[in-house]
Amino acid sequence: MKLHQHFNKNYFFIFFFTIIVGGFITYFILYNINQNTYENALKKKMMLIALELPHVTDLDVFAKKIEKSTGDRFTIVDADGVVLAEGFGNPKVLENHLNRKEIVQARREGEGFAQRHSTSVDKDLLYFAKSFTLHDKEVYLRLATPLQSVQNSFFNLLVAVSILMLFSMFIGFFITYKLGLKTRQEIKKITNTLDEIANKNYKAIVNASFADEFLLIETHIKKLATKLEKKEKQKRKYTAKIRLISQQRSDIISAISHEFKNPIASIIGYAQTLLDDPSANIHIKERFLEKIVKNSQKISAMIDKMTLATKFENGDLKVNKTQFDLAVLAQEVLSGFQEKYPDRDFIFTVQSALIHADKTMIEMVLINLIDNAIKYSENKIILTSDEHGLHVIDFGIGIAPQELDKVTDKFYRSNSFTWDNSMGLGLALVKYILNLHESKLQIKSELAKGSDFYFQLK
Fold it and tell me: CB-based contacts of 374: which residues, under 8 Å, 6+ apart?
């Protein structure tokens, strides 16, 4: 069953039960009120009769006059129960009234009531008797009104009350119907809003204003929508992060596959040649073994660089700062490259400067920057310093503006140029190390003109 049907069923049960119980109570209350009204009316009539009775000379005529004027039967009974006067019929033929209930009660209490069927008039009557002193003798005055008029009056009153109750019931059912209709409309708003939220429209609102309970539901739905929206954003961020990690893993695998392919191919080629020709010249064997060793060292260096980059990224390496002269360290690093590349033109104008840093890490920064300059240029390379820091300048191919912010990313390599033994880790390592020293790599570059890499240390 729907909510409004439950409401209507319970309302009908409660109202029906109230009608039944209330009907019985109302019946007895109205009956008593109606009877009390007639009893009080008889008492008032009796008072008027008692005022007039002492001046009456003919009781029988007076009794008939009373009956004619009021419509009620009037009887006068003496202390022995003998009927002295009767408004209806001949009092002499009436039996003794001494044991009549209303007379007995009047003798005991001064007045009395009774209801019974009168055989003389063949009607149900309401009797009222009152003790009275007439000419120094005790008599009993009795009025009797037909119960039919009492019952008719009660029935008319009961019908009027019943009509009022039925009208009230109709109004109640009408109001219940309206309440149920309004409740269904509010519930429809709530279900529509929940459907909108289910379709990820978290800005949907209920606009429920019928009752405080619906406003409370609306408030909770708004809170729910806010939480779901937050969860959805977190889900999107998490999904994007997973995709990024997946892409990075793909890039790593691609980089490893690409960079390891040539050294491994060389090692396999030279080794296979030696296996196929065991009697080869000793000098050829030595040269091939030397190539195998160099390519193996190249792979080992790349693996070491990857491991080092991962440690920097995870924060596994700690900075061990000492004081040293940056110019001296730069000269030592450059000397190594001058021996390795004797045909290249290196210009050194770094000024002496004492710095407080991790010497091994800064040496790695210089090695990677100079190595990067060698790979990207064929002309001279300048190491110099000024108030902005140390500069490594080349006059090579340069870097496109859209790639300036990317060249320090892990595994990033330009699509325009390729080189051997490069996994896109050199500048990433420089970035990690300078971040640990609260510094930053600055790059100025112009395509086909060269690049300037510089940093500053405290």
Answer: 337, 341, 344, 381, 394
